[in-house]
Amino acid sequence: MPVGERVLSLARQLHCMTEECDTCGRSVSADEAIRRETIGDLDTDRWQTLCCPDCGARLRTVFVGPD
Ligand SMILES: [Zn+2]
Predict the structure, then answer these.
(1) Domain limits at 57?
(2) Which residue in 16, 20, 24, 57 has the fewest CB atoms around it within 10 Å?
(3) From the CA of 67, how far away is ligand 1's center (Å)?
(4) Cα 27 to ligand 1 centre (Å)
(5) Is-above-0.85 flag for pTM?
(6) What residues contact residue 13 under an 8 Å CB cut-off, 6+ apart?
(7) How many angstroms separate the alpha carbon of residue 59 from the centre of ligand 1?
(8) CA of 9 to the centre of ligand 1 (A)
(9) CA of 20 to the centre of ligand 1 (A)
(10) How far is the CA of 3 from the centre of ligand 1 (A)?
């Protein structure tokens, strides 16, 4: 997949995202979320974890490519 499509794909995922934090109850948009490497066996080139900017709780793991 061309890089342009990969970026667009990720942007599309994040654009729609607003997660409510289970820990502190805050609504977190994709722009506000902190990105971290995933925990466990997932390939960090392909997956990133979005975390709450207030309490640091994990909100969602997103696929960032390449396929
Ligand atoms: Zn939180």
Answers:
(1) 3-63
(2) 16
(3) 30
(4) 8
(5) no
(6) 62, 63
(7) 8
(8) 26
(9) 8
(10) 32
Q: How many Cβ atoms sit within 10 Å of the Cβ of residue 23?
A: 12
12: tokens are 């599309």
Question: Rounded CA gap, 40 and 11, in Å?
Answer: 24
**Residue reference for tokens 């729609």:** 16
The domain tally of the chain equals 1
Rounded distance from Cα 10 to ligand 1 centre (Å): 23
**Which pLDDT tens digit goes with each residue over 14-33?**
666 789 999 999 999 988 99
DSSP character string of 3-66: HHHHHHHHHHHHHT-EEE-TTT--EEETTTSEEEEPSSSS-TTTEEEEE-TTT--EEEEEE---
Residue with tokens 């997660």: 19
